């Protein structure tokens, strides 16, 4: 009996650590996206549902990609509503336009050879615990790509400034 209680506690501790790590990674993704595109209109420590809902229409993803790689997403379907803090309610677009933005973003991700996710990973109805992980992985890979690009640019500038 004692072993099963210990195993249960160990499983609970492991699950708790995984949840904390997932929350930390979402925080990093939100913080980085906000430095690129401005306030997302969600908490700094969003739930998976808040995080996915914020990215669902693809606007933030496309705009972030174009900040890092100008022109990587040549067509971004913008909302017709006036600019407000980005939230699910202020980003009403028809479903096919959500898909078009997400698809265009994912094409750009593939061209950069970064880890991608499925467009269905952004569907609210399909959201299960842990399903945002691929989306977070993609965003953090894009962040790493940006960092490498900046590092290479700095190295090139330093090389050109050598005596």
Task: Explain what the structure shows.
- The protein is mainly alpha-helical and about 160 residues long.
- The chain has a single domain, classed as Orthogonal Bundle (Actin-binding Protein, T-fimbrin, domain 1).
- The protein has helices at about 1-35, 50-55, 60-70, 95-110, 135-160.
- It is globular, with a radius of gyration of 19 Å.
- The model is unreliable at about 80-90 (pLDDT under 50).
How would the blueprint of this fold be written?
Layout: H1 2-37, H2 48-55, H3 59-68, H4 95-111, H5 133-160
GO molecular function, one term: actin filament binding
Organism: Prunus yedoensis var. nudiflora
InterPro entries: Calponin-like, CH_dom, CH_dom_sf
Task: Output the number of helix runs.
Answer: 5
| Shape, principal axes of CA atoms | globular
| Proportion of helical residues | 55-70%
Number of domains: 1
Structural class: mainly alpha
CATH topology: Actin-binding Protein, T-fimbrin, domain 1
- Taking all residues together, what is the mean pLDDT? 82
Order of helices and strands: HHHHH
| Separation of the first and last Cα atoms | 73 Å
């Amino acid at each position: 009996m004692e072993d099963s209680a210990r195993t249960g506690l160990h499983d609970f501790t492991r699950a708790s650590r995984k949840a904390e790590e997932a929350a930390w990674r979402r925080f990093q993704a939100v913080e980085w996206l906000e430095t690129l595109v401005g306030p997302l209109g969600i908490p700094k420590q969003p739930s998976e549902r808040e995080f996915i809902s914020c990215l669902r229409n693809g606007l933030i993803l496309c705009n972030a990609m174009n900040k890092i790689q100008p022109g990587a997403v040549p067509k971004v379907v913008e909302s017709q509503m006036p600019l407000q803090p980005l939230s699910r309610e202020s980003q009403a677009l028809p479903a096919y336009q959500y898909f078009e933005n997400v698809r265009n973003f994912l094409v750009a991700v593939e061209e950069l050879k970064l880890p991608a996710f499925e467009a269905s990973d952004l569907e609210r109805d399909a959201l299960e615990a842990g399903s945002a992980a691929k989306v977070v992985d993609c965003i953090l890979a894009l962040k790493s790509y940006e960092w490498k690009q900046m590092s290479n640019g700095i190295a090139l500038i330093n090389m050109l400034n050598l005596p």
